[in-house]
């Protein structure tokens, strides 16, 4: 089953989130960004992935999850799990 979208969980002022956002935008990849400080359910998702911590960025692509991945790692995961989401 392939993923329908790329979700990036972040929070304001996070330099790692800003770096990943810039890298993904530069690649042309479409993604949904969710602020864990504004969405308690999203914060819970991140805690479930990051051993109880609210470590961001956390990225989810279908069943694939990663805490603080690089742009390269996210693009590789998209190519493997949701190639239809790669930019043309």
Automatic annotation (TrEMBL):
A Pfam entry, by short name: Glutaredoxin
Domain named Glutaredoxin: residues: 6-63
Listed InterPro entries: Glutaredoxin, Glutaredoxin_subgr, Grx-like_ET, Thioredoxin-like_sf
Taxonomy, superkingdom: Bacteria
PANTHER family cross-referenced by the UniProt entry: GLUTAREDOXIN (PTHR34386), GLUTAREDOXIN-LIKE PROTEIN NRDH (PTHR34386:SF1)
Name this polypeptide is given: Glutaredoxin domain-containing protein
């Amino acid at each position: 089953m392939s993923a329908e979208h790329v979700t990036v969980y972040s929070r304001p002022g996070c330099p790692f989130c800003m770096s990943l956002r810039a890298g993904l935008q530069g690649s042309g990849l479409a993604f949904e960004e969710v602020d864990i400080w504004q969405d308690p359910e999203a914060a819970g998702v991140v805690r479930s992935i990051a051993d109880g911590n609210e470590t961001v960025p956390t990225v989810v692509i279908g069943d694939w999850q990663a805490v603080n991945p690089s742009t390269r790692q996210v693009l590789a995961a998209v190519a493997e799990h949701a190639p239809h989401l790669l930019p043309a």
